[in-house]
Design brief:
Number of domains: 1
Number of strands: 11
Structural class: alpha/beta
Shape: globular
Helix content: 25-40%
Strand content: 15-25%
Largest sheet: 8 strands, parallel, barrel
CATH topology: TIM Barrel
Order of helices and strands: HEHEHEHEHEHEHEEHHEEHE
CATH architecture: Alpha-Beta Barrel
Strand order of the largest sheet: 1-2-3-4-5-6-7-11
Radius of gyration: 18 Å
Length: 278
Amino acid sequence: MTVQSLPRALAGSAPHAQLPLRIEIVPTEGILPKVATTVPQGSTIAVTCLPHHGIERTAEASARLAALGYRVVPHLAARSIGQRSQLARALRGFEAAGITEVFAVGGDAAQAAGPYANSLELMEDIAELAGGQFAIGVAGYPEGHPDHSGIDLLDALLAKQHLAANIVTQMCFSASAISAYVALLRSEGIHLPVWAGVPGRVPRARLLELAARIGVGPSLKFISRKGPLARRLLTGGSYSSEQLIGELSAARAGLAGVHLFTFNNLDLPQFDLAERGL
């Protein structure tokens, strides 16, 4: 899809009840020019932080995207930050670039490189260093986490709620699972806006690899089958989330919007990329 075709999709061809859409990219070589020619300016783009990249690459890509006219949400992985001064330097760079939101996560590194073992410790320092200048997003897990119990995950969200601005869920493939998760959060007293994390167009083999690594639960089981659901959701050997996004938009379920994990495939669904002030 080209930048010429996207504005037509944004002009109102989708149902009026559609959810806002944010996208996530990995700051690999060559992705920024691809974004600039594919994604309309003003769209919100989250930039991941991978252990082998470190936060510097995330910070650099985020500043460049902000200069191109995008609303940018850099990821800060707690266990990838070596020193408090490194965090302070990144936050100063974000402020200079006009960035107002970050996403705090523990990260995939096996060992902490510095003073932050988890996202709560990181969030506390972000709030102290920046004086509340940045909205902070946190992760949610509709289908659990391979290393933590459901009770531990809820307790962690309750502990972070006073510092958090929103929740972005782990990748999920079921509208009903996401709706049930939002209902659970509300029943437990967690009232943060929730963005439903769904995958973009991803090859089947890549999905299976990701599922094994991050612990995606029952909603992905269709991918290993050969029944009608798998045939309907897999096109040319790749999964597309357009049906799932449609189901979420129809259900609403108290969601703020959809957070699309693109894996740098910017063949985006025909849905609104504007946040509409959310």
